[in-house]
Design goal:
single chain, about 180 residues, alpha+beta, SH3 type barrels, 2 domains, 5 strands, about 65% helix, elongated
Length: about 180
């Protein structure tokens, strides 16, 4: 039969053993977070600097999207690695798997939006498709008024502004080259 003093002694001993094991892991985790913070900030500064040189003017939106995606992936990796460092590797693996399935579901639900965004990136990078150019797309002929990540706005000759999804424009459009440029 276990007595109350022996039960208390064993409980305190187990608690102190657990604390002795947890302190080095927590210290390792704090050191990791400090190093990861500095590293991520440097990497993001380099990425932002590179992106700012490539995507200027009306194309900054694409650069912002890329920088945000890089930041999300880096910080998520830091979070999973932190869990592994402090001894919660199983939780990190489960969390990584769960987020993967969630991302798959979200990407399926937002597939048209993603398709518009990818097509928008292509249109924004295309030197033959710029604001002020005359184009024909999806039966609409006019001057490109604005190119955004998801939509393009075209002013028709009749004075109407038509808004088209980029996924509808990018696969098939033509550029009206003025006679003086031929």
């Amino acid at each position: 039969m276990t007595t109350l003093p022996s039960l208390l002694t064993r409980s305190i001993t187990n608690f102190l053993d657990g604390v002795a094991v947890a302190i080095p892991r927590l210290l390792s985790g704090v050191v990791f977070l400090a190093l990861a913070y500095v590293t991520v900030r440097i990497v993001l500064a380099l990425v932002r600097s590179s992106i700012d040189r490539v995507y200027v003017g009306d194309r900054e939106l694409v650069g912002d999207l890329i920088a945000t995606l890089v930041a999300i992936f880096l910080w998520f990796g830091v979070a999973l690695t932190f869990l592994k460092v402090v001894g919660m590797g199983d939780i990190a693996a489960s969390l990584g798997t769960a987020v993967g399935f969630i991302a798959l579901g979200v990407s399926y639900a937002l597939s048209e939006m993603i398709e518009d965004t990818v097509a928008g990136v292509y249109l924004l990078r295309d030197p033959d498709f710029n604001v002020g150019y005359r184009v024909e797309a999806k039966g609409v002929t006019g001057t490109v008024a604005a190119i955004e990540l998801r939509k393009t706005r075209i002013d028709t000759d009749g004075g109407d502004r038509v808004v088209l999804a980029n996924r509808e424009i990018e696969p098939r459009w033509t550029h009206d080259v003025p006679d003086e440029d031929r």
